[in-house]
Design brief:
With 385 residues, the protein is an alpha/beta fold. The protein has two domains: 116 residues, Carboxypeptidase-like, regulatory domain (Immunoglobulin-like); 208 residues, Class I glutamine amidotransferase (GATase) domain (Rossmann fold), CATH 3.40.50.880. The chain has seven helices and 22 strands. Strands 10-9-11-12-22-18-17-14-15 form a nine-stranded mixed beta sheet. Strands 1, 4, 7 and 8 form a four-stranded mixed beta sheet that branches. Strand 17 and strand 18 form a beta hairpin. Helix 1 packs across helix 5. It starts with a helix and ends with a helix.
């Protein structure tokens, strides 16, 4: 078993390294270059932003790289005045654009820390057991609006937000056909959700104590895609497997310890791997502990859009020469040049442009007593919704 995980880890790192190499590979066309270095942090000026995409786009090439676990980057790009783009996720919620001057054949360091800006509206439902807003607001320094239990009963209550965080124990008694319709339309129109533990009810409905063969009441995610039961016990998973190459790079490791302080936490019993991406698993039975999807679709009664709308920016799928696509958000006036190079409007591998849904069995605690690894993964979910 140990040999299996060692081989898996090496394969994952190899794949990630290959992707990273592709991400910094420019298109054909020689340009004189220099190097820009710097450090990316959140608005609190002390939390480094890991795995942020840093890029400069010219008429000929797109130069890109990623920050390391300390938020540092070194980017080779074409000489001259340039726009330095920094983003996490698709770049539609967190991004910064800086004016820099790349000096030919020289390394130029940014004169100040590069702060990753929030360019979206975020909201959260307070919960009895989770407190993701303390990570979002206190630890990272971003803003979010507190909602009440009636806000998600109608699309008008959340249509102005790009992402909504639903904490564990967030008024589960208000899960209803109204919340089903609201959240279904919201996600299909591009809104993203963070959902933790007991609040799985908002995704798949009530009756989480019954067998998975029994249909759940309410919920907008098809029961056939995921089923959980509150069978988890107060325990520690000492070597949880980080199976997502993205998370492996983000944490710099392939295992982590997770402490479950609540009895009866949601354990995932069945999952459709074509619908959900599993990111962390329990080594005891390989059951998923953290999953995400952007595969939800719903053609009924969709609002025109949700969240903020900046017509000066557009999200596109950029094709690197080696075939590895990356999703970036760029100035709208640069769109014709990108389309001419074979890029397309919208996110890569998400033709419906639905929002992300993250579901995590572990979460923050009201006393804030969580491991550094759990904290970093919560930060990852926030920055990549």
């Amino acid at each position: 078993m140990k040999k299996f995980f060692a081989a898996f880890f090496l394969l994952s790192i190899f794949m990630l390294s290959a992707c990273k190499k592709e991400a910094v590979e420019p298109n054909q066309g020689a340009e004189i270059t220099g190097i820009i270095t710097g450090k990316v942090v959140t608005p609190n000026n002390r939390t480094p932003v890991r795995h942020a995409l840093v890029f400069i786009s010219t008429a000929k090439n797109l130069y890109s790289t990623y920050t390391d676990t300390e938020g540092n980057f070194s980017l080779t790009a074409a000489e001259g005045p340039q726009e330095l783009h920094i983003q996490t996720g698709n770049g539609d919620k967190f991004r910064t654009i800086l004016q820099v001057n790349v000096v030919a054949n020289q390394t130029t360091a940014l004169s100040d820390l590069a702060r990753l800006n929030l360019v979206a509206n975020l909201a959260y439902l307070a919960g009895s057991f989770d407190k993701i807003e303390s990570i979002l607001i206190d630890s990272l320094g971003y803003n979010a609006q507190s909602l009440n239990q009636y806000s998600i009963q109608n699309i008008a209550g959340i249509v102005n937000y790009d992402a909504v965080f639903i904490n564990c124990g967030s008024y589960n008694t208000f899960v209803s056909t109204n919340t089903d319709t609201t959240l279904a339309n919201y996600v299909a129109a591009g809104g993203s959700l963070y959902v933790s533990d007991f609040s799985m009810n908002f995704l798949t409905g009530l009756n989480a104590l019954t067998d998975c063969q029994v249909p759940r009441y309410s919920g907008f995610i098809p029961d056939s895609t995921v089923c959980s039961r509150r069978t988890g016990t107060t325990s520690v998973v000492p070597q949880a497997n980080i199976v997502s190459p993205e998370l492996q790079y983000y944490l710099g490791k392939n295992t982590m310890s997770i402490s479950y302080n609540l009895g009866g936490w949601e354990r995932i019993q069945a999952i459709d791997n074509n619908y959900w991406e599993t990111m962390v698993t329990d080594p005891a039975d390989n059951s998923p502990l953290l999953i995400r999807t952007h595969n939800y679709t719903n053609s009924n009664n969709l609002p025109q859009f949700v969240g903020t709308r900046d017509s000066s920016m557009v999200t596109i799928c950029h094709q690197l020469p080696s075939g590895h696509p990356i999703t970036i958000t760029v100035n709208a006036n640069a769109l014709p040049a990108h389309l001419a190079h074979g890029d397309s409007v919208g996110m890569c591998n998400n033709t419906s442009n639905a929002g992300w849904i993250y579901f995590t069995t572990f979460h923050n605690e009201h006393n804030g007593q969580i491991s550094e690894d759990v904290k970093h993964i919560l930060e990852f979910m926030i920055l990549n919704l």
